[in-house]
Amino acid sequence: MSDSRSGTPGNLLTDHPELYEARFPDPERLAARWTEDTLRRHGAGPRVLDLGCGTGRDAAALHRSGRTVTGADLSEAMLAHARDHHPGPAYVRADLHGFDLGQGAFDAVVCLDSSLLYCHTNDQLDGFLASCRHALAPGGLLVAEMRNGSYFLGRTDLLDRPAVAEFAWQGTAYRSHTTLTVDRTAQLLRRTRVWTTDDGSPPAAQHSAWRLLFPQELRRFLTAHGFEVLELHDGPGPRTEPRWHHGELPGTTTDGDRLHVVARLPTP
């Protein structure tokens, strides 16, 4: 759910959740169905924390699957929208860099659409994983889906030219030009998105970044925090091409542009 996780003030999508859902429609709730399938395959308990829940669409879909869901986000606008439009879960404000929602309060922590990659530094990533460990009951799962840092080793197809998107919302036509660049020193994938509209508003440029995590680096962080890595693969998933279909099992490679991880907190 993209910019909703960064909590950046003055962000067009974060400040207008309805616009976000118009720009990124998910009528089939594919991300939530993939998550539910993953949780069921690994026998996860019912209590789920959707960390970086954005507009609440996935949290509400998991709630309808019979789970007790808490959605957490840094954006107050997103949380207000979630409470009004996607009821069922409890919604709370929390920073993924460090949070405390109760020790052992959840059977699974879910972190979708590259939310984990807003941990730009090692300290932030350590804070995230320490918080997850505190939040999970013994045997609990961490399920995350994100960009794959290793995809950018020698590949430039996502960097060569801006990605252009157009859509209409409430009678206004929106157009975005999104450019990705690799900051090798900071190990970040930086994004500049320029919005233009047909209503006479001046162009708006917005900036964000994701940590470029490599599969074995992620495995090392997880094991250092006491997690057992159960799955680490590039697909199929909710944002891969081709996309995941119900019943498909995870692959064994980590070469694609998305990365999926399932890790378990061992039982003492």
From TrEMBL:
Which residues does the annotated region (Disordered) include? 234-256
SUPFAM superfamilies referenced in this protein's UniProt entry, alphabetically? S-adenosyl-L-methionine-dependent methyltransferases
What are the protein's UniProt keywords? Methyltransferase, Transferase
Q: Which GO terms describe its biological process?
A: methylation
The UniProt GO MF terms for this protein read:
methyltransferase activity
Methyltransferase domain: which residues? 48-140
Task: Indicate, by first and last residue, each region the UniProt record lists as having compositional bias (Basic and acidic residues).
Answer: 234-248
Read off the PANTHER family from this record.
JUVENILE HORMONE ACID O-METHYLTRANSFERASE (PTHR43464:SF23), METHYLTRANSFERASE (PTHR43464)
| Name recorded for this polypeptide | Methyltransferase domain-containing protein
Q: Which organism is it from?
A: Streptomyces koelreuteriae
